[in-house]
Design goal:
Mean pLDDT: 91
Low-confidence stretches: none
Largest sheet: 7 strands, antiparallel
Strand content: 35-45%
Number of strands: 7
Distance between the termini: 15 Å
Strand order of the largest sheet: 1-2-3-4-5-6-7
Length: about 100
Amino acid sequence: MTEYTIQTKEGAKITVVQNGTWVNTEIKGRRVIAKVFDKGSSFGISNGRVSKLSVYKPGTTGNGFDDMEYNYDRGMDFSEIDEDILAEIVWELEHLPVSE
């Protein structure tokens, strides 16, 4: 497991906990759990690196479907999130460092 801090495109610092391809972080005040690969694929959001993504509503514990506002598991499951916020979250995940 690796923990590191990155700076977002808005200049905020976020801590990322990565276990293999799994990423656990907070972006835009939301708990985010994602599976992020080094290269994009047909399973990824817009053929990108993120093949699984759960975004939890602000102010929730981030446990279970009731707390989710977005879920993608190799395809869209449901979305109740503002599209601009989702785009920012996906952008940040797509720009995480790749494995060496």
